[in-house]
Design a protein that fits this description.
217 residues; alpha/beta; eight-stranded parallel sheet; 20% strand; binds D-xylitol-5-phosphate; binds zinc ion
């Protein structure tokens, strides 16, 4: 059973509370919050105060995706803000193992993220201890980009690896997810599907979430 995680990057920030209330009533499983620092990616979005604010309008799992340099210095403030899961780019820190450990010690789901140019082998040493692996299916920074089909083999590799090695991380995909690409990712072994423009660009986001969910169940 796949989980849907709408990304509020594509929400209307001026009326964010309404969009969160809409998601709260919808079949969305998680709420995906994209933090960008203008350095790791060429775009600037939210800080920990948005996580805190979103939390006031929903009880759903808050899935925070940190696209920042030196994430080691920032995770405390997101833990304090009430995130349920924190995903960190393997490319952004020299201490990925330590960062994952710290997130887990605080009782949050620890996720490691790999960019399109990063192979699965780069994170193999930590695959036995992470709760989630996020495979970027676009280059991070912006919503509305086209899905990179070449990333499907990474999902298959991660799915096979966890079976062969008794690991129990979830596989998440992020970028370019729509009614077609969600099915190919699901068949490749993905469990959690982030969707931004596809959900918030729909006439009825609630109906679109329902449609996506049906496609992975
Ligand atoms: C991209 C972000 C995504 C983004 C996806 O850097 O990590 O979460 O919101 O947007 P869509 O679904 O429009 O590709
Ligand atoms: Zn994201």
């Amino acid at each position: 059973m796949g989980k849907i995680a709408p990304s509020i990057l594509s929400a209307d920030i001026a009326k964010l509370s309404e969009d969160i209330e809409m998601l709260e009533e919808s079949e969305a499983d998680w709420i995906h919050i994209d933090v960008m620092d203008g350095h790791f990616v060429p775009n600037l979005t939210f800080g920990p105060n948005i996580v805190e604010a979103v939390k006031r309008y929903t009880n759903k799992f808050l899935d925070v995706h940190l696209m920042v340099e030196e994430p080691d210095k920032m995770i405390d403030s997101y833990i304090e803000a009430g995130a349920h899961g924190l995903s960190i780019h393997a490319e952004a820190t020299k201490n990925i193992h330590q960062v994952m450990q710290k997130i887990k010690e605080n009782g949050l789901k620890a996720g490691v993220v790999i960019n399109p140019g990063t192979p699965v082998s780069f994170i193999e040493p930590i695959l036995s201890m992470v709760d989630l692996v996020l495979v970027m299916t676009v280059n991070p920074g912006f919503g509305g980009q086209e899905f990179l089909t070449d990333m499907l083999s990474k999902i298959e590799e991660l799915d096979q690896y966890r079976t062969e090695n008794n690991a129990n991380y979830l596989i998440q995909v992020d970028g370019g997810i729509n009614n077609e690409t969600i099915q190919t990712c699901y068949q490749a072994g993905a469990d959690i599907f982030v969707a931004g423009s596809n959900v918030f660009g729909a006439d009825s986001p609630v109906e679109q979430i329902k449609t996506l969910k049906k496609l992975v169940n």
